[in-house]
């Protein structure tokens, strides 16, 4: 792709992001979000894309729905997809969202009683260059509450992986402890969460859509048996399992 079409595409995507960003709801909208034990929450979803090693075009788009609070698998959907949009940093959602959205729409059409009440996304929400990451994009287009949970720190808006950040991580003593990810502007874009006692490495939680940050952090912690919340962990495991089964010669 030549420089000019890429520049035009970035401008187009920036414009689309800005319009969609206006639709993000950053607060709690559901009754279950407002109670300490999330009473009324019965189904939590998780989405992920897994690629065959060396192939950044063909992927397995995965959706899982787990029961809450016991986190048992209720539904799974694995689909091989071909990504058509190029990868440009900060615009990952334009590559991945269409396929994840299709998975949710397929579920809503075929088994609406299993549609998740909240979706965990392997990626960022408001913690993003323009405060509109993958979890926001999927949330706005699906209309569902979404939570972004990233395994790696996106160094953005003045948040850096420096000594101060590392000392804050060290200060997280137990599962559930967190600290804010504050932009240069002073806005809190997300939180670093020690998700369980077993792992001292945090995850980075941010609002996707229709949930507050504090609720997103509490819910993420409640869904963690290991470092990564179960909906995302199981989506990742099942998508990799699908690739191993259907593409045994490839190293996934």
Automatic annotation (TrEMBL):
Gene3D superfamilies: archaeoglobus fulgidus dsm 4304 superfamily. Pfam families: Endonuclease_5. GO terms for biological process: DNA repair. The keyword Acetylation does not apply. Its cofactor is Mg(2+). InterPro entries: Endonuclease-V. It comes from the Eukaryota. Keywords: Cytoplasm, DNA-binding, Endonuclease, Hydrolase, Magnesium, Metal-binding, Nuclease, Nucleus, RNA-binding. The keyword Transcription regulation does not apply. Belongs to the endonuclease V family. Monomer. Interacts with PABPC1; the interaction is RNA-dependent and stimulates ENDOV activity. Endoribonuclease that specifically cleaves inosine-containing RNAs: cleaves RNA at the second phosphodiester bond 3' to inosine. Active against both single-stranded and double-stranded RNAs. Has strong preference for single-stranded RNAs (ssRNAs) toward double-stranded RNAs (dsRNAs). Cleaves mRNAs and tRNAs containing inosine. Also able to cleave structure-specific dsRNA substrates containing the specific sites 5'-IIUI-3' and 5'-UIUU-3'. This is Endonuclease V. It comes from Gymnodraco acuticeps. The gene is LOC117562548.
């Amino acid at each position: 792709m030549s420089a000019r079409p890429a520049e035009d595409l970035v401008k187009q995507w920036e414009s689309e992001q800005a319009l969609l960003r206006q639709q993000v709801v950053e607060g709690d909208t559901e009754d279950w979000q407002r109670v300490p034990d999330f009473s009324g929450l019965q189904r939590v979803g998780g989405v992920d894309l897994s690629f065959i090693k060396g192939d950044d075009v063909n992927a397995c788009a995965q959706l899982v729905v787990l029961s809450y609070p016991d986190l048992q698998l209720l539904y799974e959907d694995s689909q091989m997809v071909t990504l058509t949009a190029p990868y440009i940093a900060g615009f990952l959602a334009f590559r991945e969202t269409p396929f994840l959205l299709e998975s949710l729409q397929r579920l809503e059409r075929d088994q609406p009683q299993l549609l998740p009440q909240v979706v965990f996304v392997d990626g960022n929400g408001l913690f993003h260059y323009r405060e509109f990451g993958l979890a926001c994009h999927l949330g706005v287009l699906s209309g569902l509450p979404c939570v972004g949970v990233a395994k790696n720190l996106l160094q953005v808006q003045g948040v850096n992986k420096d000594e101060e950040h590392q000392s804050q991580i060290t200060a997280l003593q137990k599962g559930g402890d967190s600290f804010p990810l504050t932009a240069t502007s002073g806005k809190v874009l997300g939180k670093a969460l020690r998700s369980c006692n077993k792992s001292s490495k945090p995850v980075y939680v941010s609002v996707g859509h229709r949930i507050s940050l504090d609720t997103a952090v509490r819910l993420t912690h409640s869904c963690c048996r290991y470092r990564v919340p179960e909906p995302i962990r199981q989506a990742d495991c099942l998508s990799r399992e699908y690739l191993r089964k259907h593409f045994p010669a490839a190293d996934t």
